[in-house]
Amino acid sequence: MQAAGAVFKLLQGRGEDKPEDLLLTRDEVLTWLKEEEEWRLSFLWEEADRVRKEHVGDEVHLRGLIELSSYCRRDCHYCGIRGSRKIERYRMTEVEVMECVRTAVRLECGTVVLQSGEDPGLSRDFVTRLVRRIKAETPLAITLSLGERTLEELAEWRGAGADRFLLKHETSDPELFRRIHPDCGGEVSDRVALLRAAKALGYECGSGVMVGIPGQTFESLADDIMLFRDLDLEMIGCGPFVAHPDTPLGQSRVQSPESQVPASDVMTTKVVALTRLVCPDANIPSTTALATVNRERGRELGLERGANVWMPNLTPLKYRAMYEIYPGKAKVIDTAEVFHQSLLATLERIGRRPGKGPGGRRHPAAG
Ligand code: SAM
């Protein structure tokens, strides 16, 4: 073990007697979440980077994000495309989506992420056809991030060839979740149950949280990180909560500032780093929200503190402003190609390289 790793272990109050056991306990995670001393945090960053390198290597997997539709039947209190907002909306055609898919192939993304509001207009048949077509015409892996869809739909899409299912549980605090994410259509929302069901269908599953949701405590955030481990997730995405002024949560006041988790870049990278230590083999993106709260260095900080995935936005420019889940969603003006160039330059600067192929989770047993 390198010197930094040894110091990290000592900072936890662990002796040399458990040299390989660096999987953190919930109490240790909580202590790190509250840590503010920069010199101590520097050991957390180093340890997360070391574990990232050891378990998932220097490749940064590119997942091309295609935001298919901004229609949404839900009314989440945090989200700028919540159904009750009177905003201009769009839904892409199959031809438009396939155009973006071809861009993904050209830019050597191993995966496309099909994301949208929870839009019944994206019918089961439409998505099935799209998945079949992408699988037939490209070597790409497909991640579905279409919200809470039925088990029948998920089963059909898996059968059509979809590889991954992404649904953030946002917070493991049930009371907070219900407050910010109202049930819909008479059905109670249970995202964790849906993730478990998707796993049983054979999907690689991804979840994640927003960091700094008004009302979120350090304790519940520690629970979130432990839940990542319990769920044995393949992908874990954590970004800061970014207040949208036209949403209930964007206008709310924090009730207990002393126990409130800050929605900052440092706090988010603490979560990224701790997630890497708790789930060493997971694919972890450096998120757009992190790049939005720290435009200069957000992306890099994520990658230097445990992340190994980057999600270039391939949505056509004419639709980007209509998918405004929060204000200032990083650089709406960049085309996929421009973004790609800056991405390659950043990777080179920090000594990393773009991943090849779909970049699924590397299971320890598989080597
Ligand atoms: N409808 C799907 C769903 O709910 O999973 C996918 C689209 S949703 C817009 C994707 C993610 O955006 C959510 O999981 C949430 O974490 C994030 N998001 C929405 N509003 C946000 C905000 N104000 N700040 C940060 N992230 C936000």
Report on the structure:
With 367 residues, the chain is of the alpha/beta class. Helix content is 41%, strand content 12%. The chain is built from 14 helices and eight strands. Strands 1, 2, 3, 4, 5, 6, 7 and 8 form an eight-stranded parallel β-sheet that branches. Strand 3 (141-145), helix 6 (151-160) and strand 4 form a beta-alpha-beta unit. Helix 9 (218-231) packs parallel to helix 10. The longest helix has 19 residues, at 38-56. The protein is globular, with a radius of gyration of 20 Å. S-adenosylmethionine is lined by residues 78-79, 115, 117-118, 145, 147, 167-168, 170, 210, 239, 241-242, 244, 289, 325-326.
How many strands, what sense, and barrel or not for the largest sheet?
Answer: 8 strands, parallel
Radius of gyration over C-alpha positions, nearest whole angstrom = 20 Å
Low-confidence stretches: none
Tally of helical runs? 14
Provide the β-strand percentage band: 5-15%
Q: Level of helix content?
A: 40-55%
Task: Give me the strand/helix succession.
Answer: HHHEHEHEHEHHEHEHHHEHHE
Mean pLDDT: 92
Give the end-to-end Cα distance, rounded to a whole number of Å.
20 Å
Dominant shape: globular
- Tally the beta strands: 8
Bound ligands, named by name, code or SMILES: S-adenosylmethionine
